[in-house]
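Re: [ENG-882] Designed sequences occasionally contain unexpected residues at chain ends

Forwarding the minimal case from QA. Structure tokens:
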């Protein structure tokens, strides 16, 4: 869940940077290295970089991908075993799943 939040935040940050860079024509393009470098506001970032938000300084930073890491693609083919079985969702399975949850009134927030 934490990784999904970070990925969502990075995508949101990149889209904001892309919109800002489209609006200003005289901004310089970011030149990546193997070390983390600060990305100026409105600066164009080439695709295929690691991008992070430094939570200590609040600055965006980027660097080249490491050589040992493979770039992932949204259109990659992921092999799935045909023998994989999926658990059927039934009332009985749901009751078992919810049996261990503690749903006390202290945990429930109301809109009042």
């Amino acid at each position: 869940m934490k990784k999904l939040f970070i990925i969502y935040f990075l995508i949101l940050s990149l889209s904001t940077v892309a919109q800002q860079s489209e609006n200003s024509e005289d901004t310089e393009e970011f030149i990546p290295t193997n070390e983390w470098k600060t990305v100026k506001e409105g600066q164009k970032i080439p695709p295929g970089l690691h991008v992070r938000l430094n939570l200590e300084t609040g600055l965006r930073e980027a660097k080249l991908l490491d050589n040992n890491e493979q770039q992932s693609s949204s259109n990659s083919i992921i092999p799935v075993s045909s023998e994989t079985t999926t658990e059927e969702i039934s009332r009985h399975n749901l009751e078992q799943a919810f049996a261990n949850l503690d749903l006390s009134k202290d945990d429930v927030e109301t809109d009042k």
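QA comment: On inspection the terminal residues look reasonable. DSSP finds two helices and three strands in the chain. Proposing we downgrade this to a documentation issue.
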